[in-house]
Amino acid sequence: MGLPELPLVTVIIPTFNRREIVKEAVKSVLDQDYPKIEVIVVDDGSIDGTGEELKEAFGPKIKYIYQNHGGASRARNKGVIEAKGDLVCFLDSDDLMTPNSVSSRVRCFLEDERCEVAYGIGVKERRYRGKERLLLKKTFPSGYILKEYVRDPFITNNDYMISKSNMLAYGMYKEDLTNLEDFEFFVRLSHKLFFKYCGTITSLLRDKGQRARHNFENIIAQGTKAIDHIFADHELSLVLKEEKNRLYGESFLRVAKANLKLRRPREFRRYFKMAREIYPSAKWNLKFWRRWLLSLFLSFKIKQ
Questions:
Q1: pTM
Q2: Which of 23, 31, 76, 130 is the most buried (most CB within 10 A)?
Q3: Residue 2 belongs to a domain
Q4: Which residues of 15-43 are buried (b: 16+ CB within 10 A; e: fewer)?
Q5: pLDDT > 70? residue 99
Q6: Would you give the distance in Å from CA 126 to the centre of its chain?
Q7: With left for phi above 0 and alpha for psi between -120 and 50, is residue 219 left, alpha or beta?
């Protein structure tokens, strides 16, 4: 794609009720070694004073947009629509960018005219300090990487960069998805666009602690919705025909695990059985068999 010598990059940060930590995310973007950056924070209906805190801390250095609560996908899409940059990328508001995150990905576009999506890798913050070389020993593919990605989802929302025009052309995020929305999105992109690995750690993932109850409820409520979207696409359903049972089986397993976390042993066993029936060739690991036994124990306690 044709880009100016130094294209403007818009970094979009969706946030919801993260008044304190979102400031650290914004600062990590403002501290980039790349000179042409627009920062957009899309506040998805926060009620904890996030907006006031950001305006006081950063003023005109960022563009702050407030919307009624509609989910992270809607917030990301809103940021894309408002972006002035030739290229766009994202950062979750509880994570950080490494100092050369933007410049390393821009370089892919400038050095390889085939590049349509540039990506790096995200690592846990506690593993990063002083271990950059060790963490970068693993190599990741470039090209049309659908088959590799669907087997091992190695790209996160924090770590890719794309032109605004391609983002708009390929449908952006599905706003009805609140679980696995990134997986569904990258499956679509990796089928159509040329990905280039930049060989850099581009984000640091903060310790998010234990998942809240509503997140497990969300996994259960969403079920196989993301996988349904993928196989509703005729082209993808043909290309990924051999992966269909595995993807549905893994989706059932996620729902099973969420039910066990919420102490619903019968529902855990129901979804576990569904996963085994649809994907019997899977190597069910010891951890899931332990969970099966735990579900029996919980059932006994509930009856007591």
A1: 0.91
A2: 76
A3: no
A4: bbebbeebbebbebbeebebebbbbbbbb
A5: yes
A6: 19
A7: alpha
Tell me the pairing of strands 87-90 and 160-163. antiparallel
Task: Dig out the tokens for 68 from the structure.
Answer: 């009624």
> Phi and psi dihedrals of 54, rounded to 5?
-70, -45
Assess contact for 262 and 216: CB atoms under 8 A: yes
Locate tokens 């821009």: which residue? 106
- Predicted confidence (pLDDT) per residue in 214-266, tens digit: 799 999 999 999 999 999 999 999 999 999 999 999 999 999 999 988 989 88
Mark whether 130 and 261 lie in a shared domain: no
pLDDT score of 5: 84
**Is residue 128 situated within a structural domain?**
yes
Which structural domain, as residue segments, surrounds residue 159?
Answer: 9-205
55 with 26, same domain? Answer: yes
For the cut 70, the answer to whether the pLDDT of residue 282 exceeds it is no
d(CA 164, CA 153): 23
What confidence score (pLDDT) does residue 165 get?
98
